[in-house]
């Protein structure tokens, strides 16, 4: 029976009436249920030839597990796990061996949240949210039914990340070969002590053109000793073949350590850092024209043109701005080393961007907040973010040319020159 009333019900502050989210969650629930059912049916179809001694099917459906809630990026989604029964082995049925267990790849047995949420936790940590505030933060994002993320749960997750990092550090590199490497020291002021931690990072390119995280650890500034320890650790774990060329900024610590551990590796100075260093030595009014001249050197079609552009630069600015001219001239060879490699790779070798682009995102997410984040915790958080980003790193252009570099083929202005052609040119 309906009654008239003048009482207006007010919405509770914690209740959000969002029909769109409700529709998305219901759709996600149905799709997930259908996918789990399809996965179980595919398993049964693959095992349909398996029979018991009396001819009955060995594998049959066995209902569902109890309903549980999976936390996703759109909130909590209820789901039931499909179960499959293996009716053998059974001595009475004449089948020997171990029972086969059906495990869903979509819905692991003990999963309570999607992997995307685990990837979100390092971001929240670096953003300045303390472990005790994770529950409140996720409740605002995912609703009041967000998973229980107490400080003890976060501590266990950090222990898992620490184990993952230690296994990664101990991995065997004896079968790995990196023809190019990029090195940089990244400083993050993210809930850390006043003295920012320096993350020493090395990214390598395999002969197939794939970029990988090779070395990663917290160092004392960018000292030669810190870089030496990192390179020695890589060599200890099997990285015995020296890279063809290393790309980095002007930090002397890295180059000194590199010459000690891999003396045959050539040096390539990062043009982004070098241009910034040169422009810092002249007034702002001069910088636009000087920047255009520096780009003439960097983007020259060959080494000869680059040498001419450097000579023009020295003539234009040497008298009035000697510090800028000297800053460019003193690193002439390491700035032009990329010309001795395939032309398809020049864009990659001119800069340490493979590292800068990854950590630019991390830097934007990290700000000074109250409280201090230890170097160890910061290392784990950044490691998780970098490993997630590594899956999307762009491969080198013209990667099929990399094996030629390994074979010691000589390149002139990016073009491979055979021994016979080289003799004819001489």
UniProtKB/TrEMBL annotation:
Cited Pfam families: Transposase_mut
Keywords in alphabetical order: DNA recombination, DNA-binding, Plasmid, Transposable element, Transposition
Signal sequence range: none
Residue intervals passing through the bilayer: none
Highest taxon listed in the record's lineage: Bacteria
Functional summary from the UniProt entry: Required for the transposition of the insertion element.
Family, per entry: Belongs to the transposase mutator family.
Protein name: Mutator family transposase
Organism: Jiella pelagia
Top-level taxonomy: Bacteria, Pseudomonadati, Pseudomonadota, Alphaproteobacteria, Hyphomicrobiales
């Amino acid at each position: 029976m309906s009654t008239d009333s003048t009482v207006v019900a007010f919405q509770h502050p914690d209740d959000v009436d969002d029909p769109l989210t409700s529709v998305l969650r219901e759709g996600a629930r149905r799709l997930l249920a259908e996918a789990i059912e399809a996965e179980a049916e595919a398993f049964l179809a693959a095992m349909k030839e398996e029979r018991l001694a009396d001819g009955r099917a060995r594998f049959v459906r066995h209902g569902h597990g109890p309903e549980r809630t999976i936390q996703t990026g759109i909130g909590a989604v209820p789901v039931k796990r499909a179960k499959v029964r293996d009716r053998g082995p059974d001595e009475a049925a004449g089948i020997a061996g171990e029972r086969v267990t059906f495990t869903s790849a979509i819905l692991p047995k003990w999963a309570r949240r999607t992997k995307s949420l685990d990837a979100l936790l390092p971001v929240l940590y670096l953003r300045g949210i303390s472990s005790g505030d994770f529950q409140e933060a996720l409740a605002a994002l995912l609703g009041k039914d967000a998973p229980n993320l107490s400080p003890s749960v976060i501590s266990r997750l950090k222990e898992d990340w620490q184990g993952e990092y230690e296994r990664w550090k101990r991995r065997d590199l004896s079968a790995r070969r990196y023809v190019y490497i990029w090195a940089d020291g990244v400083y993050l002021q993210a809930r850390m002590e006043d003295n920012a931690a320096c993350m020493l990072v090395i990214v390598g390119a395999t002969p197939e053109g794939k970029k990988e995280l090779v070395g990663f650890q917290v160092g004392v500034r960018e000292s030669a000793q810190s870089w030496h320890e990192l390179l020695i650790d890589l060599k200890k774990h099997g990285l015995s073949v020296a890279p063809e060329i290393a790309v980095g900024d002007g930090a002397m610590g890295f180059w000194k350590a590199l010459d000690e551990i891999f003396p045959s590796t050539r040096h390539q100075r990062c043009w982004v850092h070098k241009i910034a260093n040169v422009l810092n030595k002249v007034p702002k009014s001069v910088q636009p024209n000087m920047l255009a001249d520096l780009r003439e050197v960097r983007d020259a079609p060959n080494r000869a043109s680059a040498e001419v552009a450097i000579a023009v630069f020295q003539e234009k600015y040497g008298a009035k701005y000697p510090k800028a001219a000297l800053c460019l001239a003193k690193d002439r060879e390491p700035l032009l080393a990329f010309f001795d490699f395939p032309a398809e790779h020049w864009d990659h070798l001119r800069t340490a961007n493979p590292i800068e682009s990854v950590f630019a995102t991390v830097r934007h997410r990290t700000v000074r907040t109250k409280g201090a984040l230890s170097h160890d915790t910061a290392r784990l958080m950044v490691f998780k973010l970098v490993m997630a980003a590594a899956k999307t790193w762009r491969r080198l252009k013209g990667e099929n040319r990399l094996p030629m570099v390994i074979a010691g083929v000589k390149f002139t202005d990016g073009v491979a020159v055979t021994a016979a052609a080289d003799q004819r040119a001489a």
